[in-house]
Every structure is written in C-alpha cells, then in structure tokens.
Amino acid sequence: METKHFLYLAPIRGITDRLFRDIYHHHFPYFNAAIAPFINPQRSINFNNKLLADVNPMGNGGLVTIPQLMYNTAEDFISLGKRLEDIGYTHINWNLGCPSPMVANKQRGSGLLPYTDRIIEMLEEIIPALRAEISLKVRLGFKTPHEIHDLLPRLDQFPLKEIIIHPRIGKQLYRGRADRQAFADCSEVSRHLLVYNGDINTAEDFRELANRFKGIDHWMIGRGALTNPLLPGEIKGHSFTAAERKELLSGFHDDLYNQLQIRLSGPGHLLNRMKQIWAYLIGSFSEEKHILKKIRKASTTRHYERAVAKLFQ
Ligand SMILES: Cc1cc2nc3c(=O)[nH]c(=O)nc-3n(C[C@H](O)[C@H](O)[C@H](O)COP(=O)(O)O)c2cc1C
Predict the structure, then answer these.
(1) Any idea which fold 6-235 has?
(2) Phi-psi category of 176—alpha, beta or left, where left has phi over 0 and alpha has psi -120 to 50?
C-alpha cells in the first residue's frame, strides 16, 4: 500500500464546500487534507464573518482543511489571515492560480503572476505579520509559462510551507494537458516543497507521475476525485469490486442529497447543485447513458430520485 504519498483534495469552488468535504471524507477517507475554495475576496473592512463559515474548524468532519485567500494587497490578506488565526488555523493558502477572466483581470489569482515584484512585496509584509504558515497555489503564469521562472527563484528567500503548481497558464483555462515537463523544470529551480496538481484522473496517471517525479510526495487532485471518488483510495493501494463501488457511491450520493435537501432552499437549488456534482460523477457510470440523461434532465426531485435509484439498483 502506498502510504508515503500525501494527497490533497483540490478546492473546486461551487462543489467542495464544507458539507461536501465532510460527507466525501466520511465515505472515502483517503485524502490527507483539503484546501478549501477561496474565501470571497471582499475588502477586509466590509468583511462579513458569515463568509468564514465554510472554513470554521468546528465540524470539518476530520479532514484537515486549509483555508485559501485570494487578495492582491498585503493589508487585506493580513487582516483576514489574523481572523483565520483567531479561529485556529496555522496554515493559509494563497490563490495565485485562478484563471477566471473576472478574477484575473483584476490582478487576482493567476492575473497577479505577471507582477512578480508585487507578489514579493506582499510576501515581505505578510510573512512577518502572521504566525500561520503560508503556502501558494500557482499556475505557470497568466500569459506565458515563463512568468513562473521569474517568480520561483525569488520565493526561495521566504519560509513558505509549500508551493502547489498546476502546470497550465491562466489564459489556457483548462484547455490542453497539464504540462508535466514544465513542472519538472520548476522542480529544478525551487528549494521549496512542491506539490503537483493537474490531470491526475486515474491511478495509472498517478503512477506515471510518481515514477517520473521521484522527489515529489505531495499531490493534489480535483476533477479526477470528483469523477471517481474512489481514486485516492485506488492510489493508496485499495481495490474495489464493481458491487462495492456502486454501494459506496450510492451511500455517498444519498448522504449528500439528503444533507443538501436540508441546507438548500427549494428543489431548484437542490437539483442544480446535484447536476453540478453529476457533471463529474457521470464519468463513473459511462455505460448507463440513458439513465444519466434522465438525471441531467430531471425537472422535479421525484424524477431525479427515480433516475438515481435506477442507476444504483
Ligand atoms: C469549477 C472549478 C472551481 C475551482 N475552484 C478553485 C478554487 O476555489 N481555488 C483554487 O485554488 N483552485 C480552484 N480550482 C482549480 C482546482 O483546484 C485545480 O487546480 C484544477 O482543477 C486542476 O486540478 P485537476 O486537474 O486535478 O482538477 C477550480 C477548478 C474548477 C474546475
């Protein structure tokens, strides 16, 4: 069994919120930790404490969760960082990877990567001001994959916890493949602990990467783990029969559906959320196309429940 590897559940905003993480970890206890989706970067002065509910350490169901900030000023980062420290966090992740044009055009997320001086100046203020360890989640750049090569050597001076690298550029969004060679090049020029993230969709993908990057033992998985929630277990050496797989997925689905029914206001929201989850989970059931179509098209909870019951029969 692979125990050496440390697996992070990636933040997927809109899906991997606290409820999802709790229920996922209860049914599939194979991730070592999760990074929570970024906390909405409101100005610290207007900050509403309700936005911290997703990362409140109480009730995170046993999966260690690291909160993520996406600011572009040290002042806002420190202000919210201190609130996170007050509720018990000792590790905060900085999102320098979000590719969404709405975010990046405001020089946040991957949109800050071309501005190396600003990132360095922010870290010079943030690191002495916070007790928590800081990690970064980056892409190769926003416009070009060279941006990371300006940044990485300058990060060596800081005591960062780790740097998670998703080897695409921001402009690329999720097109193309994650660039494994670019990740290899990064590992040559940084003294920091690097975490590989991108397109780990099967246990075979993981094995190829682990064989190629012998010095890496921290990995982050997002869409692959939403498509096949058993993937982190498979990576860690577990195997599941088709019947076990179905039973586990069914238990996870039902728990999530029931809890979301309590949390969300009205069947419209519930169905929307479940369909977002199925957009990934569908990949675990490629044979049952006609039932999947019914799930996707369900306009009432009765239709939805009937289709899902048939799938898990
Ligand atoms: C819908 C969606 C939402 C995401 N939300 C976040 C986020 O809040 N913070 C973040 O750092 N990355 C976010 N990501 C990026 C993922 O964490 C991850 O880096 C990316 O999906 C690549 O990994 P994967 O190939 O294993 O999915 C998001 C990705 C998607 C598709």
Answers:
(1) TIM Barrel (3.20.20)
(2) left
Confirm or reject: Cβ of 170 under 6 Å from ligand 1: no
β-pair type (133-141, 163-169): parallel
* pLDDT tens digit sequence for 127-174: 999 999 999 999 999 999 999 999 999 999 999 999 999 999 999 999
Atom 2 (ligand 1) nearest CA? 12
The reply to whether ligand 1 has any atom less than 6 angstroms from the CB of 311 is no
Ligand 1 binding pocket includes 97 (Cβ within 6 Å): yes
Mutate to test the pocket of ligand 1, among 7, 8, 9, 12 (most ligand atoms within 8 A of CB): 12
Every domain of the chain and the residues it spans:
6-235, 242-311
Residue range 14-72, pLDDT digits in tens: 999 999 999 999 999 999 999 999 998 877 666 777 778 888 776 556 899 999 999 99
Q: Is the CB of 41 under 6 A from ligand 1?
A: no
Question: Is ligand 1 within 6 A of the CB of residue 12?
Answer: yes
Q: Could you identify the atom of ligand 1 that is nearest to the CA of residue 220?
A: 26
Q: Stretch 262-270: mean pLDDT, rounded? A: 95
